[in-house]
Amino acid sequence: MNIQDWWPRLDAPTQQWLIENNGDTVPPDIQARIATAAGAPAADSSWLGDADPAHFSLSDEAVDWIEAVANGEDG
User: Fold this and answer.
1) Which of 9, 30, 34, 35 has its CA 20 to 30 A from that of 54?
2) Residue 48 bridge partners (DSSP)
3) Are 26 and 50 in contact (CB under 8 A)?
4) pLDDT digit of tens for each residue in the chain (75 aa)?
5) Domain residue ranges in the chain
6) pTM of the model
């Protein structure tokens, strides 16, 4: 599933955290919310950066997409 598909399934506080902390390591509570919206990420998920729970991050592509959304672009 692409980030464009699961982003609308996230609650507003989670979206806001991802926007405000774009590019940072994603904490476990936000990881859980993403997993609820997107399902477990596959190794080839375009939005997955580092899947290690201690250093979970989004891919550069996902970070760029979130930045575009935050800037009011289509993403």
Assistant:
1) 9
2) 58
3) no
4) 889 999 999 999 999 999 999 999 999 999 999 999 998 877 778 888 887 778 888 999 999 999 999 999 865
5) 3-70
6) 0.87
